[in-house]
Amino acid sequence: MQGRYYNIQRATQAQIQHLKYVKELLLQGYKVFEVEQAKGDLIPYHSHSHKEIIIVTSGKLRMIVEENIIDLDEGEIITIEPWAIHLSCYPFDGGSSFYLCFPPK
Question: What are 21-24's contacts with CB under 8 Å, separation 24+?
């Protein structure tokens, strides 16, 4: 529904569940970043000393974790263990948006 001064969008059930999950992470002290990537973007190989959680909110993204190629669709969540070498790339049309979540130190 849209008016001259407002725009109402309906959240899907999956979006509502993601928001509840993100809220719980925030209450636990996680840092949560909302990220958008375009087709062709690449986040090169890296690792962290902590766990990383990625929640795909739209589009698709491809992860390579150690030697495993993993394609994630909207609505999927991946947890990457500490020190796992990984990269993210976006070879799909339309790019991707997702939450990037890091635990408290």
Answer: 21/55, 21/77, 22/55, 22/99, 22/101
CA distance 5 to 68: 48
Contact 66, 78 (CB under 8 A): no
Tokens of 75: 């609505």
Q: Please report the pLDDT score of residue 9 as a whole number.
A: 64
The pTM (predicted TM-score) of the whole model is 0.83
Q: How far apart are CA 35 and CA 99, in angstroms?
A: 6
Which class for 77: exposed (0-12), middle (13-18), buried (19 or more C-beta within 10 A)? middle
pLDDT tens sequence across 11-37:
677 777 888 888 999 999 999 999 999
